[in-house]
Amino acid sequence: LFTPEAVFRLQHSTRTRQYEEFRRYTDEVDDQHERLMTIRGLLRLRTGALDPVPLTEVEGIDAITRRFMTGAMSYGSISQEAHETLAIAMNQLGGMSNSGEGGEDPERLRDPERRSAIKQIASGRFGVTSEYLTFAKDIQIKIAQGAKPGEGGQLPPEKVYPWIARTRHSTPGIGLISPPPHHDIYSIEDLAQLIHDAKSANPAARVHVKLVSRFGVGTVASGVSKAHADVVLISGHDGGTGASPLNSLKHAGTPWELGLAETQQTLLLNGLRDRITVQVDGQMKTGRDVVIAALLGAEEYGFASAPLVVSGCVMMRVCHLDTCPVGVATQNPELRARFTGKAEHVVTFFRFIAEQVREHLAALGLRSLD
Fold first, then answer.
1. pLDDT tens, 130-157?
2. φ and ψ at residue 137, rounded to 5 degrees
């Protein structure tokens, strides 16, 4: 979906703050959705079902951007500059950035402008300390990744620089692998125990569980709700950065539309929907994607690849080689110096998305995403 022209239009529109150019980007992506047959591309918004409402009556941009998250991209998989840019932007917007599974530098933890609001607990537990959890607004337990379910995470040895190893409490130059399962979770009761432990570590934080879209995920989400999690995240198969193997992107997992719809219906049938917030992610790129997700039951929305592209990513797909030419997915100091992304570009992107969401809602005769 990220054609060279779409990448150019997205970067140009957010750097120059040209909303009309941003529309051309979203029009191209939405057209690709339809021609390449993603499920949301096959759906039609019934704009004639209700009378349109004035745009001024639709909830404001700030009310929408608070529902936006950036995806779990770890410090190590992406550079310090890229990681901090996303965190700063989301903190300014009132949304939340996700630290990923690599921990966070103690200096950043104590800086409310630079730290990530969501702290992730993954199967490898890299960088997870009591201090790390203390500074979280959300604590995310990652059961699996939508783009590569059942594979765990990997950070190649050439990317484990001394400063990365220090943050992850590991050894420089030694590859880091998060196993596919959590070795202390083999049942919903085990998951409930970890949810309880996370709430004990930081009673003020929401605890949410990241699941992948697949058949039966609604039943698992019901168990997550009964285990007293605050949020359940349904992650689609078409997400993932260049570090995800192409065979996994193409042949593993299922679209978030299917998993989200099943989760919504199963929670409703079991009388659990009002006990938990439902979040979704997986190659969200346009305001239309957000509206489709809201109509299928989601309340919060995650973006990962698109904010990275806004920050300068050109989709070289060499994230695992430490040779990223634009300083996004590398730890090499010489390559990191080429990073041109700014938090204001990411802020502009999310504000444009929110404005587009408002326009779709107004056309549908709706005033809110609720």
1. 999 999 999 999 998 877 787 878 889 9
2. -90, -35
User: Which of 256, 245, 251, 211 minimizes the C-alpha distance to 231?
Assistant: 211
Neighbour-count burial for 228-267, b at 16+ CB within 10 Å, e otherwise? ebbbbbbbbbbbbbbbbeeebbeebbbbbbbbbbbbbebb
Amino acid residing at 62: D
Answer whether 13's CB lies under 8 Å from 346's CB. no
Cβ neighbours around 178 below 10 Å, total: 21
Secondary structure class of 147 (helix, strand, coil): coil
What pLDDT, in 10s, does the model give residues 327-342? 999 999 999 999 999 9
Of 368, 239, 352, the closest CA to residue 287 belongs to 352
Q: Supply the pTM of this predicted model.
A: 0.95
Contacts of 358 (CB under 8 A, 6+ apart): 55, 58, 59, 61, 64
Measure the CA–CA gap between 253 and 213, rounded to whole angstroms: 6
- What the block records as the tokens of 119 is 């702290």
Count the neighbouring beta carbons within 10 Å of the beta carbon of residue 215.
10
List strand residue ranges (DSSP E) for 91-185, in order. 96-98, 118-121, 138-142, 153-155, 176-178
